[in-house]
Amino acid sequence: GRFEAAREAEAKWDAFVAELDHGPSSAFARATKLYLLQARHDFGGTLAGARTLLAIAQEENFLLWVTVARIFIAWAEGMRGDRPAEEAAAAMQEAIEGFKATQTRVILVQVKAMLAELALASDDLDAAIAACDAGIENFEGRQEGVFAPEVFRMRGSSTSQRAGASAGAGDCARAWDHT
Q: Which end of the chain is more exposed for a tag (fewer CB within 10 A), N or C?
């Protein structure tokens, strides 16, 4: 609820990162900021930040951050309407596969929620539910719970849209349980 203080801290953070002039630290800091921008649905900021991260990651040959940048670029372009949501979702899924090839799984619950959001933008309830199912599977398998409420909420909402309000009530209750 302290948006002005958050924006001031964000500006200080950005200045600090710019002064670092250290590729690995800059890539990590910029990637971390993408999560904040995405959570705020700042599509333009997410896109700009992801493109900057991609340039740094390619220059420094940080494959992990290249794939993370591509995930966020695809999401932001799809959500902003720069490309069809279905095309953005396919690009995002390709980037997710590249991310998994780096042998990490740490943000998969969140990116599956992002993928579900793109599917909902194109009214593809089946794809949204499948993305949420994959996010929930990752949550249950590894207990990465930060975005668990979101994938349960989105699956409940999608299921309710397809089969009626009572059909998604259990997932919505599970979302609340994991907050």
A: N
Question: Cα–Cα distance between 69 and 162 in angstroms, integer?
Answer: 32
For residue 10, CA distances in Å to 29, 73, 91, 96, 171 come to 11, 21, 29, 27, 34
**Residue 55 in 3-state DSSP?**
helix
The span from the CA of 48 to the CA of 69, in Å, is 10
pTM, rounded to two decimals: 0.85
Report the distance separating Cα 136 and Cα 114, nearest Å.
13
Non-local (6+) Cβ contacts of 162 within 8 A are 125, 129
Burial of 16 from C-beta contacts in 10 A (0-12 / 13-18 / 19+): exposed
Nearest-angstrom CA–CA distance, 153 and 109? 13
Distance CA 151, CA 134 (A): 9
